[in-house]
Specification:
With 311 residues, the chain is of the alpha/beta class. The chain is 47% helix and 11% strand. It has one domain: TIM Barrel.
């Protein structure tokens, strides 16, 4: 199946790709291809690149385009690709958005830069971008207050949805945010506003509850994407207890990987151990694991694998 543009029906797992680097800190494009194949083999429905956990702010514009081009060619339209284009410079954001769509990406994801402040300023910032952005480009809004330090209310987001048809997805990553998710869904379910796709983040930490609150799936960078895929599949089949039982097996690792500040290093080390990348390097300044951290992680992985075997 060939994929074109992102729309409101998007569901399932849109894995947020790590950005592989060599031990020297250079982009590792061969590992990028290997990582793409790993994600596809695990059954993901889409891939999101150049997100916050993809270390996008550490890449030059040229590197971002090279990495994106490598991913798009390796995927070859087998699943849709969403591109994180957030940038303090709006001209840079527009340029990467246009480049992405010209090269067959499905849509772009936008988060406000940290420290915008009031919700009025946030609304003005977003409408300024959307007015300048080509209306052929589908947009996912990333609601990630932990990083952006800005919160958007359901009312303000719904106002943007009504004013801009190209906004087709909401990445829900507020914490705590389950009641916000319920409110967002209630507004669209009762016809008060246009329904958009809602995918959730935070490493999948609250995935069972988020699915029960009406999420359409997950957009996160968890190192075991097959768990996300199967939990969502079971939930959509109405097998909610089975979905939670499976999630519970992974929970100790989910919790460990979700540590603020260290989570990316844990995720990359796990991807390395799973054969998905050739180095766990994060570009400086970036987190790294101590020998004790690695020993702890290996024990968690070993226990997870035993649990999955029923031991």
């Amino acid at each position: 199946m060939l994929y074109n543009k992102l729309d409101e029906t998007a569901e399932g797992v849109y894995i947020i790709s790590a950005t592989p680097f060599k031990d020297s800190g250079e982009l590792d494009l061969e590992s990028t291809k290997k990582l793409v194949d790993f994600y596809l083999e695990k059954g993901v429905d889409g891939i999101t690149v150049l997100g916050v956990m993809g270390e996008a702010p550490k890449l030059t514009i040229e590197e971002s385009k090279l990495f994106l081009d490598t991913v798009l060619k390796q995927v070859n339209q087998r699943v849709p690709i969403i591109v994180g284009v957030s940038n303090p410079g709006i001209d840079n954001l527009i340029d990467l958005s246009n480049f992405s769509m010209d090269n067959d990406a499905a849509g772009v994801m936008i988060a406000p830069p940290p420290g915008i402040g009031t919700e009025e300023k946030l609304y003005n910032y977003l409408t300024n971008i959307l007015d300048k952005l080509d209306d052929r480009i589908p947009v996912c809004y990333q609601d990630y207050p932990f990083f952006t330090k800005s919160e958007i209310s359901v009312a303000t987001f719904n106002k943007i949805v009504e004013e801009y048809d190209q906004v087709v997805m909401f990445k829900h990553e507020e914490w705590p945010g389950l009641n916000k998710l319920s409110k967002l869904r209630k507004h669209s379910d009762n016809g008060a506003t246009r329904r958009v796709s809602v995918l959730t983040g935070n490493g999948g930490l609250f995935l069972p509850q988020e699915m029960q609150r009406g999420a359409d799936g997950a957009m996160t960078g968890f190192a075991y994407p097959e768990m996300l895929v199967e939990v969502i599949k079971l939930h959509k089949q109405g097998r909610i207890d089975e979905a939670e039982d499976l999630f519970d097996i992974y929970l100790p690792y989910v919790r460990y990987e979700q540590q603020p500040g260290l989570g990316l290093a844990i995720r990359k080390e796990t991807l390395l151990r799973r054969g998905a990348i050739s180095s766990s390097k994060s570009r400086d300044p970036g987190p790294s694991l101590s020998a004790e951290d690695k020993k702890e992680l290996i024990r968690l992985i070993d226990r997870l694998e035993l649990s999955l075997k029923g031991n």
